[in-house]
Amino acid sequence: MEENLSGQLADAVAQGADEADLARARAGDDAAFTRLVEPLRRELHAHCYRMLGSAHDADDALQDALLRAWRGLARFEGRSAVRTWLYTVATRTSLDIVEARGRRALPADLGPSSDRAVLDGNAPLTDVAWLAPYPDAGLAGDPAGPDARYEQREAVELAFVAALQHLPGNQRAALLLFEVLGFSAAEIATMMATSTTSVNSALARARKIVAHRVPPRTQQQTLRRIGDARVREIATRFATSLERGDADALVALLTEDVTWSMPPLPHWYRGIEAITDFAVQVPMTRCPSWRHRVTSANGQPTVAFYLGDDAAGPHAAWSITVLTLRGEHIAEITSFLGPDGFAPFGLPASLP
């Protein structure tokens, strides 16, 4: 009982501090505004990423949303919590970007898989907005609200974020606000300036599409069952099999229906035979020397690969490769090519 009373006292003190900072912020105190926003910045950024499928777009959206919030602070009447108000602004800002830039894709969205290694005619497609990986450090593993269905890390998994890209903006927003963040349909209707009936209709349509595209078992459930040590071992064995040119070791890690895609390259592969052919002909043969760092992206085991001209020389950032596991085998390999994705993960641009 003492712990419960202590927690209630702490909540009351925190609420009082927020109200004091809100009053100061309304009077033009930007430091007070920063104190209000800072505890929510990480989760707001993750929300923008789920809406947009790009960490870079999420940066832009959050910066714009906070600027809008600062400029509109005088109009905030305090009828809802500061958190609800900030999510309203962030959601509306993200919807504006969705309308302007459209949805993001993975290679499987563009066409069928290739049966053999494509050595020519697989140039990067620069006119496609590609889904991008997300640095998940600091994301909580629990729901953001008591009524949320998805954990925070579940809701940045590649399959889930990719499925969201197939939803219109209003459905995407409604699903995230309800099932990831735990807002009620009535609250969402107010946030999106629509009716509760419209929100419920959007939720029903969104759930149907997402259920069709997302596996029944999330990566978080799989990873918890396997354990951190085993997950890291699988990622390391995958990386070293490529570094050593060991096709048998690679195949032993894969499911029969494994896929491998490499945005921004349009061609992708499905099945052990196709992937073995690609791996032997390209990364194991035409790429002289590999180095790696094991990390995490989208709540999933990830390998940052570096490519060099020889084993002794420097190795430059090459890909952020996100692994999707089914049991203790790799079911999907998604290699996001290019050095630009390394900095958000705190990874160096090259290894000496």
Automatic annotation (TrEMBL):
Domain (SnoaL-like) ranges: 236-332
GO biological process: DNA-templated transcription initiation
Annotated keywords: Sigma factor, Transcription, Transcription regulation
RNA polymerase sigma-70 region domain location: 36-103
InterPro entries from the UniProt entry: NTF2-like_dom_sf, RNA_pol_sigma-70-like, RNA_pol_sigma-70_dom, RNA_pol_sigma-G_actinobac, RNA_pol_sigma70_r2, RNA_pol_sigma70_r4_t2, RNA_pol_sigma_r2, RNA_pol_sigma_r3/r4-like
Signal peptide (UniProt feature, chain positions): none
Gene Ontology MF terms: DNA binding; sigma factor activity
Highest taxon listed in the record's lineage: Bacteria
Domain RNA polymerase sigma factor 70 region 4 type residues, every copy: 159-208
Any Pfam family the entry gives: SnoaL_2
The UniProt record lists the keyword RNA-binding: no
Annotated family: Belongs to the sigma-70 factor family. ECF subfamily.
Subunit structure of this chain's protein: Interacts transiently with the RNA polymerase catalytic core formed by RpoA, RpoB, RpoC and RpoZ (2 alpha, 1 beta, 1 beta' and 1 omega subunit) to form the RNA polymerase holoenzyme that can initiate transcription.
Name assigned to this protein: Sigma-70 family RNA polymerase sigma factor
Species assigned in the record: Streptantibioticus silvisoli
